[in-house]
Structure to design on (217 residues):
């Protein structure tokens, strides 16, 4: 979908991202880098239909690709509709010559995550005036081993049913009151048929591969 926005507000976020100062090696830093403002120049210039028509006339008159006009541009990926359930997939491999190598670095992640600095200012499913989009962690998938072999385990929180979340999923209702604390419950570590109760600190120290958050309502 292509839309025309005021250049002054097109790249504005729901909350000021410059106040973040995200710590390197954290999920906030990952999201900050993923949604950063990029400049498209030289070979990455953007094909501009408006510029082309202004210079050469209607599109039907253009018979040569050399007559298309490319221009410098800015690009930024932001969230326009925060989901009821947020899944974050961490890229845990990197290219090393002709081989792929697993990244074992610990990435810090919080129990309560605010997506507002990564959402567009005209974000949907957010009540007018709200400057926070909060999520509570309820699941983590961890991988041990190498790129060739390994084992997946999971951490899951047993918690009460969030009826407001189903209202958001089924009826798209706006959050009425945002909670700032994580959903209460007991964490469990699951490895095949082995299940053990663990502390939240144990979960937060894991090497996450997948993170699952639910919207706090």
């Amino acid at each position: 979908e292509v839309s025309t926005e005021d250049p002054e507000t097109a790249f504005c976020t729901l909350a000021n991202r410059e106040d973040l100062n995200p710590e390197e090696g954290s999920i906030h830093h990952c999201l900050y880098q993923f949604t950063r403002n990029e400049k498209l120049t030289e070979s990455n210039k953007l094909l501009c239909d408006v510029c082309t028509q202004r210079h050469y006339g209607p599109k039907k008159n253009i018979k040569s690709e050399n007559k298309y006009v490319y221009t410098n541009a800015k690009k930024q990926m932001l969230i326009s509709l925060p989901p009821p359930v947020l899944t974050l997939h961490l890229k845990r491999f990197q290219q090393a010559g002709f081989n792929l190598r697993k990244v074992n670095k610990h990435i810090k992640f919080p129990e309560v995550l605010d997506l507002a600095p990564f959402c567009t200012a005209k974000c949907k499913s957010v009540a007018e005036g709200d400057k926070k989009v909060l999520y509570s962690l309820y699941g983590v998938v961890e991988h041990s081993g190498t790129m060739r072999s390994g084992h997946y385990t999971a951490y899951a929180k047993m918690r009460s049913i969030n009826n407001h979340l189903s209202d958001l999923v089924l009826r798209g209702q706006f959050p009425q009151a945002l909670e700032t604390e994580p959903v209460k419950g007991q964490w469990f570590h699951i490895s095949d048929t082995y299940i053990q109760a663990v502390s939240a600190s144990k979960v937060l120290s894991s090497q996450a591969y997948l993170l699952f958050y639910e919207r706090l309502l």
Q: What stands out?
A: Residues 85 and 214 are 5 Å apart (CA to CA). The chain has a mean pLDDT of 85.
